[in-house]
Amino acid sequence: MDTSVYDEANRIKAEISQIQGRLQEIERETNSKVSFDRRKIQGEIIDADQALLIHNNRVPTLERQIESLKRNIANSEESLKKLGEDYTNEKNRSMADGSNLCPVCGQEYPASMKADMETVYATEKEKKLLEINLAGKSLSTSIKSFKAELDDCEKKLSDEKSEIDRISSQKADLQKQLESL
Prior knowledge:
This protein is an all-alpha fold. The protein has helices at residues 2-92, 111-180. The longest helix is centred in the N-terminal third of the chain and has 91 residues, at 2-92. The protein is rod-shaped.
């Protein structure tokens, strides 16, 4: 009987040893899986940090571009307004009184010469009005271009900020996962 109790005790010890070995193996596998998961999440956090750095660096550049475009638009609109005033002034300008008098002798120019002077004056006036008009059209085109570029930059800025929010949220989720391991 002593041997059978002894044999039974040895068998139980062997089972315990086998179970402890299996338990250690499970712990190693679990620790290995946790370690792998931890490294994977840490890598994803690093990737998120790099993406945030890139997007955060783009924001100030876009903000500066937007401010510059707004200044360009304001300056161009002011210049366009001035051109409008110049056009109105030129349009309302008439040949000065006394311009049909000879500056040397003070006598009035002959009628044929007056007609030529009025023709030259009208031609110069139309030329000046055309120049102002062309400059105004050019400015209007520039303003439209600036506004289109401004809209594009504002959209890019909005997209960058949305992407920063998305990545930040993703990073926070990853950090929670890491803490839970």
